[in-house]
Design a protein that fits this description.
single chain, 228 residues, alpha/beta, six-stranded parallel β-sheet, 10 helices
């Protein structure tokens, strides 16, 4: 029997879900919710995007449900890899906040569904079912904030003008990575990384890495303690 307030799904085919979150307790709670709903089966769990990709190649899930803390680079890159390597898998991301940079970046990365982690059980189930049908889903909270931002005179985040690669480099810089470390992480040359750093500083109007980090904190792009 379906839970009160959730869609009746006993006659629907099972939707195979891969759970991705770096907190085991969060995964356990979502697993229980999905299994109790009646038409979902959790095929595997992963603690990182890299692990999830390995499991997805084997299990071929219908939907990949990914937890995201802040503007987590690993989730953005993981979504792009899923889009390229396993395009049949639908991606739904649950973010810990409603940062305005996130929805646009996630959609660009191939994500079909965006939710916040304070969504209701019914909304989570609705989102998973919608993307499984081939639809896109953005939670009401995110949709309202996106609409408010576009209709208001509030300045847009300066980070929205960065390309995906520039955003990758910027986030790694805010993590204290030097040029050599960033080059190894992104498989680039040091010269290329320095070129990106210069363009980032120019676009954002900052002169130092400390100023870049402060700007990222101010616009909610990073947190003081990021769970990425």
């Amino acid at each position: 029997m379906a839970r009160p307030g959730t869609p009746h799904t006993s006659r629907s085919p099972s939707i195979r879900v891969l759970l991705v979150d770096d907190h085991a307790l969060v995964r356990a709670g979502i697993r229980r919710l999905l299994e109790d709903a009646g038409n979902f089966s959790v095929v595997e769990e992963a603690g990182s995007s890299q692990e999830a990709m390995q499991l997805a190649r084997r299990e071929r899930p219908d939907v990949v449900l990914m937890g995201m803390n802040g503007l987590c680079l690993a989730v953005l890159d993981g979504a792009r890899r899923f889009q390229r390597q396993l395009p049949a898998a639908k991606i739904v991301v649950m973010s810990i906040d409603a940062s305005m940079v996130i929805p646009d970046r996630l959609v660009q990365s191939g994500v079909q569904g965006c939710l916040t982690k304070n969504c209701t059980e019914a909304e989570l189930l609705e989102a998973l079912q919608a993307v499984h049908r081939g639809e896109r889903y953005i939670s009401l909270q995110l949709a309202r904030q996106l609409a408010d931002k576009r209709l208001s005179a509030t300045p847009r985040s300066p980070f929205e003008q960065l390309t995906h690669r520039e955003l990758q480099v910027a986030l790694l810089v805010t993590q204290g990575k030097n040029t050599a470390e960033i080059a190894r992480s992104l498989c680039l040359t040091g010269k290329t990384v320095n070129g990106y750093r210069n363009r980032i500083m120019e676009k954002l109007g900052v002169a130092t890495e400390v100023q870049l980090t402060h700007l990222a904190l101010r616009h909610g792009v990073i947190e003081l303690a990021c769970g990425c």
